[in-house]
Design goal:
This protein has 898 residues and is an alpha/beta fold. Strands 10, 11, 26, 27, 28, 29, 30 and 31 form an 8-stranded mixed sheet that branches. Helix 8 crosses helix 10, helix 12 crosses helix 13 and helix 25 runs antiparallel to helix 26.
């Protein structure tokens, strides 16, 4: 195996790239602490683990398994590759075998037949469930156990197979979506499994955050309730990445007091020495070399630095590959804002990124966002003397990138690094921030390697959502066995799919959270080996800041998993679903939390439920589970089908289809190019033809935000606060063809596609001219001041509204068409709203004071990730005017009620 020191030398290219390395951190190796197998552990199962090389468990594995065996809900929060699966399979499979043995000893008793123990395994993605099935089969095969019946069951499972699972399976691996849409509504068919349920395993439970986490929490409460009607009271076993307060998050997820959850967070597994390198691509001349000419405006996920007058900070896409959908990459949330006439209407704070395996911005043309500067003096430029465009940092003279001296795109840089690592013999994952970026990095890497050794070129592939399940399984097997040496992937491989023995991980751009950073980094050097991790900065001040301030990225604590199980917008449809499963009784309401009775009264008043002396009933013909979608995906995926053969190539999320598989678009699948002949939205199909083309396509779209109704309004003197319904409308207008690699524009075509609207709720506040003048805000500094205040307020609202930053979107504009004033909007990123903006309206003064305090007390000079920079800013965190934002908030708060 190649040493990490040698690999870093390879990347530095004998010093020719030394100026790109901004920091190196060596994380020391850690010795493992093994302990004896628990006395209660099934002897055959232990023999199976030993046959696979696990002579003794690590201490954290044994502690978690012991707690679960004793009947305590348990959360294990340790690093990637620390063997969390053993901790939940050991007690659960031992329980299944113990009860199976009792049945064999006394086969005549009916109870033993009915109560053969069962286990339900839940994870965020189908890919992870398939991987766990593979690993579990290996253990059972090594243990020579044939009396434990294991099955995966999800929306793709045929009815005949589903019936076998219902009647026979001891261990069922699935996801929360299947519970919500199929298992719980049809619980009578699953009575055997539910009545014998001993353990529920929640794997990668840190992924259940924000509104998605609130939905999963409601589903788990419904599961506990239905299982209880069949006499079961299962123990919950949760496996999580290293997060803050794992016991609190786990208890909130399953609906029990925190003291009822045992937390095991002391990682006793061995870890090799890990080298973390922070890397900034070099400055380039616009025409320097074919691929270095791929500048930020052509990078599928690098973001522009020019200044638009309006900023849109939309929610990100929190997804996973195996689900066949990308959560929250829904219609109406992918916003740039260039009209057909070229006038800039809005910028985009789009996050294709933090936790996003999405196509949202991947198919969009970032150049469209800055194609036409706004009117006014020096609009659209960033002058060297302007606040927010000069030094960055915590009192240091770190100068922000000059937009006239652009840096090489992260796509091109990562492709170079991946090629060099592969040629040096390393096995590597390159994490990118969109599907298109994964395909681009893989394609360019293969081209580089083909010049060196054609055999190496075929050892590189892309891995992303939208591939068919069998393709993903084949790629996973190929990287495990070494047949593939490198994968360019989205965060599809961030979760616990077991790919061990990797030498290096290259992360293209800040992934949005430290939890994601360390999850991705943990792929390097798994199984106790040394590993190299390289974080490559995008052309973005946030990334620039982080690679020059390693303490902000590497030393700050990881985030907590945040969600609100009592959110009435989320809980209401689940109460309807629960009533449809079995009528809700008064004594069951505590399970769903405080405020449930009042929410039921609202549902009765609106005709959703009927109240009877015996409880609350669902009496409608339609399925109650269809009232809500756990992931808010905005529609079924669009299938990509080859016209001549009828072969299904893959899928694209409904919300991204307009910008990625419109007529004339180039669709890339494992390096092969296809051209879309027709997009049939009504059928959910894009028909493509295989063609070798030397160009790519970039869509251009327009976004508008409109106030539909004002639910509540109050005035602070000249300042107006509002809360109400808004429409965030997006429409793809045209696309450009650009020749690869020189990115010459070959032509453009208009498209006739429908507008997509996200109806949601928003809070907003205005800053009329007299308030801006009092704050000393000029025409030039107003966009940056409003933008900075918007970012900071979005960052602070989760502290008051119990949500995740990616549950929110925002707009800041120096002149909004509806208010006719400078306005900051913060909206819920879910259709119909989710209650977060309403909470912000109710706590307006508290919220803005906390926002002002966070900005003013931050020790940085002109803005940093701790105050006004956002990990999901589609405008590249420009313009941002930190000092002006403080003055603006002071001027607004001066009118707040005492």
């Amino acid at each position: 195996m190649v040493g990490t020191g040698e690999l870093l030398d390879v990347l530095l290219a004998a010093g020719r790239r030394a100026d790109r390395l901004t920091h190196v951190r060596h994380l020391p190796a850690r010795e493992g602490t093994p302990v004896d197998w628990p006395a209660w552990a099934d002897a055959d199962l232990v023999a199976g683990y030993r046959a696979l090389g696990v002579e003794r468990p690590w201490r954290h594995q044994a502690l978690a398994a012991d707690a679960a065996w004793s009947g305590r809900h348990t959360v294990l929060s340790t690093s990637t590759g620390s063997g969390k699966s053993l901790a939940f399979w050991l007690p659960s499979l031992s329980a299944v075998r113990a009860q199976a043995a009792a049945r064999a000893l006394d086969p005549g008793r009916i109870e033993t037949v009915a109560r053969r123990g069962s286990v339900l395994y839940l994870c965020p993605t189908k890919a992870l469930a398939a991987d766990q099935r593979h690993a579990l089969d290996r253990v059972l095969h090594a243990a020579r156990l044939r009396d434990v019946r294991v099955a995966t069951c999800d929306g793709d499972t045929a009815q005949e197979e589903r019936r076998w699972v219902q009647e026979h399976a001891d261990v069922v691996l699935t996801n929360p979506d299947f519970l919500h849409f199929a298992l719980l509504p049809q619980h009578r068919r699953w009575a055997r499994l539910l009545g014998s349920l001993r353990y529920v395993v929640l794997d990668e439970c840190h992924a259940f955050r924000g509104v998605f986490g609130a939905h999963v929490a409601a589903v788990l409460r419904r599961l506990r309730r239905v299982a209880g009607t069949y006499g079961a009271d299962p123990v919950f076993l949760l496996a999580s990445a290293t997060t803050a307060e794992p016991a609190v998050s786990a208890a909130r997820l399953i609906g029990v007091p925190a003291e009822d959850v045992v937390s095991v967070a002391d990682d006793a597994s061995p870890a090799g020495r890990k080298t973390v390198a922070l890397w900034q691509p070099p400055e380039v001349a616009p025409a320097e070399g074919p691929w270095s000419g791929l500048l930020p405006e052509d990078d599928p996920w690098a973001l522009p630095l020019d200044e638009p007058p309006v900023d849109v900070d939309r929610a990100g896409t929190d997804v996973t590959a195996g689900t066949e959908v990308d959560a929250r990459a829904r219609a109406g949330t992918d916003s740039t804002a260039v009209g057909a006439d070229g006038d800039v209407a809005a910028g985009a704070d789009g996050d294709v990124a933090a936790g996003a395996d999405g196509d949202g911005a991947a198919g969009a043309d970032p150049t469209a966002r800055t194609a036409a500067p706004a009117p006014g003096p020096d609009a659209g430029t960033v002058g060297p003397a302007r606040e927010g465009s000069g030094p960055l940092g915590t009192g240091e003279d770190l100068v922000a990138d000059d937009p006239d001296r652009p840096r090489r795109s992260a796509t091109a840089e990562v492709a170079d690094l991946l090629a060099d690592l592969t040629a040096a013999g390393a096995r590597t994952l390159a994490f990118t921030r969109s599907r298109r970026a994964a395909e681009s990095v893989a394609t360019v890497t293969r081209e580089h390697l083909r010049e060196v050794d054609p055999e190496l070129a075929v050892a590189v592939a892309a891995y992303r959502g939208g591939y068919l399940p069998e393709e993903r399984r084949e790629l996973e097997a190929a990287i495990r066995t070494g047949r593939l040496r490198a994968l360019a992937t989205t965060n599809a491989l961030e979760l616990g799919v077991d790919i061990s023995g990797l030498d290096a991980v290259v992360i293209a751009g800040w992934p949005g959270t430290r939890v994601s950073l360390w999850q991705q980094a943990g792929r390097a050097g798994r199984a106790g080996a040394d590993g190299l991790v390289v974080l490559v900065a995008r052309e973005d001040p946030l990334d620039t800041y982080l690679v020059h301030h390693p303490e902000a990225a590497l030393d700050a604590p990881v985030e907590a998993t945040v969600f609100d199980p009592g959110n009435p917008y989320v809980l209401a449809p689940h109460l309807c679903a629960a009533a449809a499963e079995t009528p809700l009784r008064a004594e069951e309401l505590d399970l769903f939390g405080p405020g449930t009775r009042e929410l039921l009264d609202v549902l009765v008043a609106r005709g959703a439920l009927r109240r009877r002396p015996s409880g609350w009933y669902w009496t409608h013909a339609e399925q109650a589970a269809r009232l809500t979608d756990l992931r808010g995906t905005g529609g079924d995926p669009v299938r990509v089908v080859e016209s001549t053969t009828g072969r299904l190539l893959g899928t694209v999320d409904s919300a991204a289809a307009d910008s990625t598989v419109h007529a004339g678009a180039v669709y890339v699948h494992q390096g092969a190019t296809y051209v879309v002949d027709e997009l049939r939205l009504e059928d959910g199909v894009a028909l493509v033809d295989r063609r070798d083309v030397d160009y790519g396509t970039w869509a251009r779209w327009v976004t508008s935000t409109e106030i539909r109704s004002v639910t509540a309004e109050r005035r602070w003197g000249p300042v107006t606060w509002g809360f109400g319904a808004v429409d965030v409308t997006t429409q793809v207008l045209s696309f450009q063809r650009k020749r690869i690699p020189d990115m010459e524009v070959l032509g453009s075509e208009l498209l006739d596609l429908p507008a997509r609207t996200l109806p949601t709720t928003s809070v907003w506040w205005t800053a009329p001219v007299e308030v801006l003048e009092r704050a000393g805000i000029t025409v030039e500094t107003a966009p940056g001041a409003l933008h900075a205040a918007e970012h900071a307020s979005i960052g602070l609202l989760p502290l008051l509204a119990t949500c995740d930053r990616w549950d929110l979107g925002g707009v800041s504009t120096a002149l909004h068409a509806d208010t006719e004033q400078a306005t900051v909007f913060v909206h819920d990123a879910y259709p119909g709203g989710a209650g977060f903006a309403e909470r912000g309206y109710g706590l307006g003064a508290t919220w803005l004071r906390a926002t002002r305090q966070a900005i003013a007390t931050c020790p940085c000079r002109t803005g940093c990730p701790a105050c006004v920079q956002s990990p999901k800013c589609g405008n590249g965190n420009n313009p941002l005017e930190k000092a002006a934002a403080v003055r603006l908030l002071d001027a607004v708060l001066a009118h707040a009620p005492a």
